[in-house]
Write a structure and sequence with these properties.
single chain, mainly beta, 5-stranded antiparallel sheet, 43% strand, WD repeat, WD40/YVTN_repeat-like_dom_sf, WD40_repeat_dom_sf, RNA binding, WD40_rpt
Length: 432
């Protein structure tokens, strides 16, 4: 549904973002209704999708297979893949699994270009990074380049532990970044994000954001409360995701599991506005490259909302997908910001053309036989990585009909045969 400057969602506005940025001598957003990219990527079409590789997770070990298939099992497996991320230089792929392990794969891009997509298989993990608890979030260092070993590092946060900085070559922990609560007990970050220059790391906690200087491991250099008692504008709940505007220095947005989105100015940490519109806790948030739009997604909420940052509280568009669980379902944009790609709880991948006014998907295709949770687009090549998997709970059982169970009337439940697919797939999109 396309929304044309209609303020239908509740907002708490402290001051005009544009006025605030002007007072801070920041570059102002251009006064235009919509910014389109003139540079195009190959058009995505169902007949031009080619599966290049499948990395399958089985029995807590990642193996490979040439084709994807539906697994039938009665066990509640522990190898669910939660997300995947391609590295900033596009040479590596990182996955996060339920076995508390990050796995790193090398993408053989030497023989690949925009006109030649050679299928590759047998991708084995070259490195495994194990955490002591379930991993909440992980990110590549934004200036990572494989030719510079010092920049090849991964930041990871897990339950009851500090943020760990892993060396992407050796797998060792270089250092840790710690945060403590009012009882002086160690607490874990729920999300990690970097300023565009890559020197400061912002981590989300309950009702607060802590800032770390990555060159000074240890405790944070600043803590910013998002729900101060004396403040008229508050963002409560756990800060679950953060993203920075690449265009307007110092502007960032934070999503909360309390269903709110806060827009902040980095210099002072002042909340500029609090946006409300989702039905569930915010799980993913992204600025557009021009800084004028903010895209947000939430758990148990089928809508990706596109907010107009120049007019806080006003929606430009909504993009519908299927998100029926609390799991994070990621979305991503191509490098030219002309295409939006999102997974779904049904395994379907939806692709929207952001150059068009219509917000119906340009194409849909079934990428997995289970929840497609991770989406990552290659920074230079027309490659797409998707991951699948989700936990199965007691709701995945069916009660036996007593009329059809004469021999085992004492059995109370019968576990269904559940299709599973815990894997990562790498797709190539051919130009028309």
């Amino acid at each position: 549904m396309l929304l044309n400057k209609t303020s239908i969602f509740k907002q708490t506005l402290l001051k005009s973002i544009v006025d605030y940025v002007r007072q801070s001598n920041e570059k102002l957003p251009p006064e235009c209704d919509h910014v389109l990219s003139e540079q195009l990527i190959p058009t995505l079409d169902e007949k031009h999708c080619e599966l290049m590789s499948v990395i399958e997770n089985r029995s807590n070990e990642i193996t490979t297979t040439e084709v994807a298939y539906e697994r039938e099992t009665t066990k509640l497996s522990e190898d669910t893949v939660y997300s995947t991320q391609l590295s900033p230089d596009g040479l590596c792929l990182l996955t996060n699994s339920d076995d508390k392990t990050l796995r790193l794969f090398e993408i053989p891009t030497n023989n690949l270009n925009e006109n030649n997509h050679q299928q590759f298989n047998d991708l084995d993990a070259v490195l495994k990074l194990r955490e002591p608890e379930l991993i909440y979030d992980f990110v590549w260092y934004p200036r990572m380049n494989s030719t510079d070993p010092d920049s090849c590092c991964i930041f990871s946060t897990c339950g009851d532990n500090p943020v760990h900085l892993f060396d992407a070559y050796t797998g060792i922990v270089r250092c840790s970044y710690k945060a403590y609560d009012h009882l002086d007990e160690l607490i874990a970050a729920h999300c990690i994000a970097f300023e565009p220059d890559g020197f400061k790391m912002f981590c989300g906690y309950n009702k607060s954001i802590r800032i770390f200087d990555i060159n000074r491991p240890g405790q944070c250099i600043e803590e910013r409360k998002t729900a101060e008692r004396t403040s008229s504008v508050k963002q409560t709940g756990i800060i679950s995701c953060i993203d920075f505007s690449q265009e307007f220095r110092g502007l960032y947005a934070a999503g909360s599991y309390n269903k709110s989105i806060g827009v902040y100015f980095e210099a002072k940490g002042d909340p500029l506005c609090i946006l409300h519109g989702h039905n569930g806790g915010i799980t993913h948030i992204r600025f557009s490259p021009d800084g004028n739009r903010l895209y947000t997604g939430a758990r148990k909420d089928n809508m990706i909302l596109c907010w107009d940052i120049r007019n806080p509280g006003e929606l430009l568009a909504t993009y519908e997908r299927v998100v029926s669980t609390n799991q994070r379902i990621y979305f991503d944009f191509d490098p030219t910001f002309s295409t939006l790609v999102s997974g779904s709880s049904t395994g379907q991948v939806s692709i929207w053309d952001l150059k068009q006014e219509f917000v119906l998907p340009k194409m849909n295709f079934i990428a997995h036989n289970d929840c497609t949770n991770g989406i990552s687009i290659h920074p230079t090549l027309p490659l797409l990585a998707t991951s699948s998997g989700q936990r199965k709970f007691a709701g995945d059982i069916t009660t036996i009909d007593e009329d059809n169970n004469d021999t085992n009337i004492d059995d109370e439940f019968n576990i269904k045969t559940i299709p599973r697919e815990n894997c990562v797939k790498i797709w190539a999109f051919h130009p028309l």
